[in-house]
Amino acid sequence: QVQLVESGGGLVQAGGSLRLSCAASGRTFSIYFAGWFRQAPGKERELIADISSNGSPGYYASSVKGRFTISRDNAKNTVYLQMNSLKPEDTAVYYCGLRGYSGDYIYWGQGTQVTVSS
Predict the structure, then answer these.
(1) C-alpha span between 65 and 20 (Å, rounded)
(2) Which of 50, 55, 63, 117 is deepest in the core (most CB within 10 A)?
(3) Closest CA to 7 of 105, 88, 84, 79
């Protein structure tokens, strides 16, 4: 069993930056792919970035490509999401998740709120 705890959310002005962290418990963190999702009010949860178990970034949603960067530190059991040039439309609850190589996401954090003011 793996537990995930996100942190780093908050209120920021448009054009600003935030760095989200997702800390995992357990010693098996490094075998999982990790991803960041977000869910805005009235919208479905969407995958915005994905990274392999060894730290190779895989997928970025077109809406965040070039502005957000996913990374991980397996020694610290932590996944990060660096968010630059934030826009009001980035306002959402951000979640991290873990999945196997070709499987569905099976572990989820509780989410952290990001609010971008115009």
Answers:
(1) 16
(2) 50
(3) 79
